[in-house]
Amino acid sequence: MKQIALVMVGFGNVGQAFARLLLRKEQTLADQFGLRIVVTGIITGRHGGAINSGGINLTRALETIELGQSLDILSEQPVPTNVTDFIFSSSADAMLETSPVNHHTGQPAIDHIKAALNKGMHAITANKGPVVHAFAELNKMAAMRGKRFMYESTVMDGAPIFSLFRGPLPAADLLGFSGILNSCTNFILGLQEKGMTLDEAIIEGQKIGITETDPSADIDGWDAAIKVAALCTVLMGIPLKPQQVDRTGIREITPDMIKKAQKAGERWKLVCTARRDGQRLLEASVKPARVAPGSPLYSIEGTSSYVEFKLDVLPGLGIVEGNPGPDTTAYGMLADLINTQRGQ
Ligand SMILES: NC(=O)c1ccc[n+]([C@@H]2O[C@H](COP(=O)([O-])OP(=O)(O)OC[C@H]3O[C@@H](n4cnc5c(N)ncnc54)[C@H](OP(=O)(O)O)[C@@H]3O)[C@@H](O)[C@H]2O)c1
């Protein structure tokens, strides 16, 4: 049995879902991959941290957070408050990064990933910031150290998007894509179709944890734009920042516009699109658009997402992810971790 020591930066929705998934998949990981994954360190923003070289008891860590207590009580030694110092003081094979995204700079997640790679760890993130703001640099750093920089969960959560292009689609050229990549706005537009105002729909989304306290990153299209930038950067090899995406959110969609679309048998969707001609990007946009029943986007409900890739070898390859959440995001990260071990 191979033991993999893991440190976790961030223990919020995704971090906790990952801990639950590890507990659930312990036997599968052992039986199918000969792996035993031991979390030796956890650090958070405001909920302390823990270091235990023998392995942190994840059930207790989850209970501690549930009770609103600091993880410090689980630590066998004082935990540095600075994340970089924490990573340098940890001895682990991989680091899991789930700190909140900064759409404009990618920090501090970029520094966390650099610290992990410098310490000789694989770096796995669900945070889109490092992918669009430091992709080439982080990949180069990883390659020089014989480690991997992995980011499957950054777009469409646990659905295999990036690994699809690494594995089953060799020598395929991605010419463009379109889809619905932001769950929150799709959910809100659905509620608006049922007669809610934007503000009422936002409150509803907040009640069930889909919409953040500050919903502007979703409503104004930043989350969708950073995903478009990530797909262009990684899959097309055209580096793009979210600020360079032609972006319009859903704020200006009025109840009247929704009704008119419904009368015409259509629906408003926040559509992400990119098209290229060689190394020239013809379009990278996030825009509300009316879609007709013939479009695959029409039937994407609630928090589900969809992307259709146009490849030189496959003119239309679509992937639907039904109602994702932190559990699916956690799965994408576990898949990344397994792939670091089997070289995929
Ligand atoms: N939720 C999803 O399903 C989903 C899907 C795809 C991608 N993502 C991405 O995954 C990441 C995590 O999402 P989440 O929903 O788990 O967020 P979250 O619930 O807000 O959790 C964030 C975690 O990071 C910690 N943190 C905050 N600032 C930090 C810092 N400077 N250094 C280290 N840790 C810090 C927080 O600690 P405190 O709570 O103590 O402050 C918390 O433990 C985000 O980048 C998000 O965009 C999430």
Low-confidence stretches: none
List the ions, cofactors and other small molecules found in this model: NADP nicotinamide-adenine-dinucleotide phosphate
Q: Can you list the strand order of the major beta sheet?
A: 3-2-1-4-5-6
Helix content: 25-40%
Sheet bearing the most strands, described?
A: 6 strands, mixed
Give me the count of strands: 12
Roughly what is the average pLDDT, rounded to an integer? 96
Distance between the termini: 20 Å
State Rg. 21 Å
Quickly give the structural class: alpha/beta
The gross shape turns out to be globular
- How many individual helices? 13
SSE ordering: EHEEHHEHEHHEHEHHHHEHEEEEH
Q: How much strand content do the residues show?
A: 15-25%
Question: Could you explain how this protein is built, in words?
Answer:
Helix 1 crosses helix 13. A six-stranded mixed beta sheet has the order 3-2-1-4-5-6, sandwiched between helices. A six-stranded mixed beta sheet has the order 8-10-9-7-11-12. The chain has about 350 residues and is of the alpha/beta class. The model has no long low-confidence stretch (mean pLDDT about 95). The chain has 13 helices and twelve strands. The relative contact order is 0.14. Bound molecules: NADP nicotinamide-adenine-dinucleotide phosphate. NADP nicotinamide-adenine-dinucleotide phosphate binds next to helix 1 and helix 13.
